[in-house]
Amino acid sequence: MDDIIFKRRSIRNYSNECVESEDLNYILHAAMSAPTARNSRCYSFIVITNNKIHKKIATIHQSAQMILKAPLAILVVGDQNKAYEGYLPQDCAAATQNILLAATAKNYGSVWCGIYSNKKRSIAIEKLFNLPENIKAFSLVVIGRPIDDNNVIKSDSTWDISKIHYEKW
Ligand SMILES: Cc1cc2nc3c(=O)[nH]c(=O)nc-3n(C[C@H](O)[C@H](O)[C@H](O)COP(=O)(O)O)c2cc1C
Question: Nearest C-alpha to atom 19 of ligand 1 is from which residue?
Answer without folding.
Answer: 10
